[in-house]
């Protein structure tokens, strides 16, 4: 909104006197503004500038770090707002501050644009590298999860296959896990294990009835040297002697189901057992065992080497 207030003759004379001498541009603008009766705030609002800029212009306080082009633009706008010719204000500025105009050439906006473009490229590259790192990390984590799932899913089948392969014929000297019968279970019913016996096996000796089973005479570590004199084969308590040429796992039970001996026997060891016949015998490596029953040798040549032998004697 333009002020229509007419200047008095005195105010016009002040401006005329100012024009005759070299006056700073801020002083001219301030005198004209006051002559029009305007405040600094009104001029700042009209030009949409900060009040501090108007104050700096009127005080001729031109910042040395400010580009001269901006200063000239402010002066031109202020002069137009208060009705002073732009050429008068700019000429006053050039006369009073020639060094500012000379030493502050206009900066190229193209440099700023190039710098911003360069910074933008750097940021884009940085974000790209960050995205690649995140992608690789996610892929690595996903592959590890897949591998763990495959291992967990395949474990049951591996266990099943291993169990199927653990059969009796695959063992030579590894003992079977057979529970030991407690002495309190002597009265339990004896279970006969059917086995195929070679035609060249030991003689079958009739087993008479008897009342009780004698104690185990075997020793797990030291050979047992039984000095019992030879007995008749018809004796149900005839001794059973096993001599080992190599390590072998055995299990021997009497007619009542009592375990007379079980475990791994060492090479060179001799074990003599006495109990109620018939005996249920398991040999992990029959080829490494020499056996006599009632002082008569027992033929074990019919059993395959490397396979578990199960039979009843006599």
Automatic annotation (TrEMBL):
One Pfam family hit: HTH_25
Stretches that traverse the bilayer: 122-142
Region entry Disordered, spans: 203-233
Listed SUPFAM superfamilies: lambda repressor-like DNA-binding domains
Cited Gene3D superfamilies: lambda repressor-like DNA-binding domains
Domain HTH cro/C1-type: 29-58
Keyword set, alphabetical order: Membrane, Transmembrane, Transmembrane helix
Keyword Transmembrane helix appears in the UniProt entry: yes
InterPro entries to which the protein is assigned, alphabetical: Bact_Cytoskel_RodZ, Cro/C1-type_HTH, Lambda_DNA-bd_dom_sf, RodZ-like_C
Official protein name in the record: Cytoskeleton protein RodZ
Organism in which the protein naturally occurs: Vibrio anguillarum
């Amino acid at each position: 909104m333009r002020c229509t207030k007419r200047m008095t003759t005195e105010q016009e004379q002040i401006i005329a006197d100012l024009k005759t001498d070299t006056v700073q541009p801020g002083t001219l603008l301030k005198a004209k503004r006051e002559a029009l009766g305007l405040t600094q705030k009104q001029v700042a609002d009209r030009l949409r500038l900060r009040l501090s800029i108007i104050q700096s212009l009127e005080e001729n306080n031109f910042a040395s770090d400010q580009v001269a082009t901006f200063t000239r633009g402010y002066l031109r706008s202020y002069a137009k707002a208060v009705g002073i010719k732009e050429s008068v204000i700019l000429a006053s500025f050039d006369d009073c501050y020639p060094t500012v105009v000379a030493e502050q050439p206009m900066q190229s906006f193209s440099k700023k644009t190039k710098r911003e473009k360069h910074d933008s490229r750097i940021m884009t590259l940085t974000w790209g590298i960050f995205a690649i790192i995140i992608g690789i990390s996610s892929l690595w984590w996903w592959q590890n999860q897949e591998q763990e799932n495959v291992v967990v899913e395949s474990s049951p089948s591996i266990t099943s296959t291993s169990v199927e392969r653990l059969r009796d014929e695959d063992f030579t000297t590894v003992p079977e896990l057979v529970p030991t019968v407690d002495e309190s279970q002597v009265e339990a019913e004896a279970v006969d294990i059917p086995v195929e016996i070679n035609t060249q096996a030991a003689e079958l000796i009739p087993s008479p009835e008897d009342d009780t089973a004698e104690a185990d005479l075997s020793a797990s570590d030291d050979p047992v040297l039984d000095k019992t004199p030879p007995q008749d084969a018809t004796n149900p308590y005839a001794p059973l002697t096993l001599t080992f040429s190599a390590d072998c796992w055995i299990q021997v039970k009497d007619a009542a189901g009592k375990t007379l001996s079980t475990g791994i026997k060492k090479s060179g060891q001799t074990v003599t057992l006495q109990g109620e016949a018939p005996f249920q015998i398991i040999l992990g490596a029959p080829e490494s065992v020499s056996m006599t029953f009632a002082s008569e040798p027992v033929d074990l040549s019919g059993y395959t080497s490397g396979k578990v032998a199960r039979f009843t004697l006599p």
